Fold:
Amino acid sequence: MWLSLFILCNGHTCQPHEIEEDRRHLFTESWKFSLDAPDDAYRTDLDDSGWRTLDLPHDWSIEGNFSKDHPAGYGGGALPGGIGWYRKSFLLSEDDKGKVIYIDFDGVYQESEVYINGQLLGKRPNGYISFRYELTDYLHYDGIPNVIAVKADNSLQPNSRWYSGSGIYRNVWMVKTHPLHVDHWGTFVTTPHINTTSATIKINTTVRNSKNVTGTFTLQSALLDQDGNEVASIKNDNITIIADKNEVVQNLHITTPQLWSTSQPYLYKVVSSVYLDGNMVDRYETPIGIRYFSFDPKVGFTLNGEKMIIKGVNNHHDLGALGAAVNTRALERQLEILKGMGVNGIRTAHNPPTPELLDLCDRMGFIVMDEAFDMWSKSKSKFDYSRHWEAWHEQDLRDMMKRDRNHPSVFIWSIGNEIPEQWEDTGLLIANRLGKIAKEMDPTRPITAGLNHPYPDNSIYRSGALDLVGFNYHHEDFETFPDVFPGEKFIGAETTSALATRGHYDMPSDSIRRWPIRWDQKFIEGNQDLTVSAYDHVSAPWGSTHEETWKLIKKHDFLSGMYIWTGFDYLGEPTPYEFPARSSFFGVVDLAGFPKDSYYMYQSEWTKDTVLHVFPHWNWEVGQKVDVWAYYNNADEVELFLNEKSQGIKKKQGDELHVMWKLDFQPGTIRAVSRSAGREVKRKEIETAGRPVKIVMEADRSDLKADGKDMAFITVKVLDKDGNMVPRAENLIRFEINGNATIAATDNGDPTDLSSFQSHQRKLFNGLAMVFIKTTKVGGSVILRAHGDGLENATIELVSQ
Ligand code: GAL
Structure:
């Protein structure tokens, strides 16, 4: 029998708001870190005073230098791995006695071991999974320090087909509760009935009794609207505590629900309160959204009864120059840039994402395909997760789904990407098993997989585990799907794989190139300087250009939509697969966050914004033949002028998505004018730029939070004497910061730039660079200065408060 039934807050019985505030704390500050620790660095008496002190989340790989000799290879981003240890000492107070204390990790890459006061709590090989350990029985109170030690082992490489990052790269939480409390991920909220006038909300709650509490308890579940007003509530009294885990099912009925959608992502919150003898002992919140959807073999995807094409992107988890270390603002900025292009979906390629990503997708309105695995029992790289498959896949899949199944943004579970077992009978057995687990965890969402063998003898398809048949590529087979797979529902789980280097253009642009191809260790096609043209005319041989893909998707409702490979460039998997390339070329947006030109094709098709995007720049050799492309919408035609002389009016014909002129270059000005019924809609001018004379900087936001986490993203470019941006500029710019912020990284989007992301100087790449500023916890003004030889300096001031 556990005696201390009431938990204390500063010596008194906790009030409801205190229970909530006290329950879960970020546990990320002032950890000690070493890449050179002894094997027994879990020992409490180890002297870690010489170790580096840092705040989590932390990725040690991104701090290293690029080299093709790192065992991860350039496929893994050409950055180092190794074994890192993290330690943190902490004290517990009198009030903590009698509470149950847990530590929650959102993700550690990888093969983590966690120790408390010298005791091993557990090992977790999967670098993307969230996990919890209970600390209670090992803790000291009364002024005796506790030591938590975490080993992250990313030494066996290659273990990933992209850049993984290393260390405690996601958040860590300490949870303190009464012994009777809502379990870890202990609610599962579904909406068995919804229409515009009413909804039923079914709440399954698991109440954990961790210390033999006896008797009965009360569970109240309340639904709060977005403003915090209670909409409905239900209370079950006298529930007998029968087990370690007590399951309670409650139903709430509401009228006129506000539905969640991608354009109006309305969020409610379920608040679960546990009472013992009339006193509240736990309070737990679950944000939810109310929405209904279906996939149909003919109509494709509908959300709340309305047909919608999923216009999604795949993204890996890295944040470019910031590496894998999670930063909510950096993630939010990525999603804002993607929203601006009209994107409404994210596939978490190819692993469980950080929980902050799903929170943001809930709040911003994205249709998420939440993916569990990139491989099953057969490996894709020498030391990958296949080594742990047998022992861990079930727990990992269950944990991912348990953690994520209340997010309204999650619509689809993917049990695997391009799994080699699809060509073998084992694929049938494994898919079958995974399908059963997934259905048990969540019967409300469809299961898919990113298949690449587009025939019915595919073992994963044959297993019957898939509710939604997901294909990667094979755009040439799309039209045959309804005949080859009669009655099935489809999703383009991964499409496109177009390639481009931002700001680089090769002529002529009107023939499609499937390259670069690397064959037998030899690079047989592609530019020797590892650039790829940014006209939308290059794709990997297995893929298709942006325009080719979108034309097909928009034509066939049954396909439900697409997830482009990829939204953002990512570290690792360069294609051209040749050093010094160390990051990908697939993104519609480059690694630094600068859109490539295709971004505006999507914007013209996927948003209501009026678009007229003309490219390339206007700095060429006299007489050179230059292809000028324009993406436009909300207009019938575009006229192009070169030095005031019309080069003709063009209209998109048939299913065309751009118009083009072939010009003989002369310096001066090109001007495009779009018109609707003869009336001017929009105009764009590009002038031939002269020599750079002046640096300019622009911040995405200038009012920042002094929380040690908020970020500003500063675009840097150079202008000529007339104020034109110099498009091919390569000037080296040096940065200096004063005030309460730091330079977290610099970048320019060049996949072959080998200078460290931590450097405070950066060459412009095709005219642009980016500085990533991070606030400290002290408010005040922040001044960033930029210097470059022979250039007028620039200064930008931000406020952090
Ligand atoms: C796919 C794969 C992705 C990525 C992509 C590159 O086949 O699923 O992870 O490698 O190719 O085109």
About this structure: The first strand starts at residue 8 and ends at 9. The longest helix spans residues 425-441. Residues 342 and 606 are 5 Å apart (CA to CA).
